[in-house]
Amino acid sequence: MPKPQEDVLVVAISPFYYLDESGKSGSDINTRDDLAEKLLAEKNLGIKVIKLDSPIYDADGAKSQGKKVGSHLVIYGETKSKIGKRGEVEYHILPLSILETIMIMPYLDVENEEKNLLLSQGASFSMVTETQLLLTP
Questions:
Q1: Which residue in 10, 36, 33 sits closest to 94, CA to CA?
Q2: Domain range for residue 56?
Q3: How many angstroms separate the CA atoms of 68 and 2, rounded?
């Protein structure tokens, strides 16, 4: 698996899963491409967009695909066709914990009264979770 770049935010976007009112499913690449264009239009943000080829259906699939391409975020979702050709889109935004360590504490040495080393422990902390954000405009 490639290591994500540290100087840009790498965003992987999959085609959205499509479901029409009669229950037929498919792949909606237009939603993926529109979102990618909007992100790439903002030149000052330092975002690299990777367009995935196949839809992602759940968080586990998003984690797997995102790690395969070395992304920091994965965006996937579902486009539902409603009566009257109006659609509803669900966006799932999943941060990956690839760059999760934001602070590493030095080793903590614990000694007893005789100055014998009892414990030596290091720790890392992160503000990144793998809890996805769901947007339904």
A1: 10
A2: 9-101+129-135
A3: 7
3-state SS assignment for residue 107:
strand
* Its pTM surpasses 0.85: no
Element (H, E) at 36: helix 29-41
- Which contacts (CB < 8 Å, 24+ apart) does range 32-38 have? 35/75, 35/91
Read off the pLDDT of residues 78-118 as tens digits, 9 standing for 90 and up. 988 766 666 788 899 998 875 554 444 555 555 666 666 55
Has residue 62 been placed in a domain?
Answer: yes
Query: Does residue 33 lie within any of the structural domains?
Result: yes
Q: How many domains does the chain have?
A: 1
CATH of the domain at 53: 3.40.50.10070
Q: Which residues pair with residue 79 across a beta bridge?
A: 18, 89
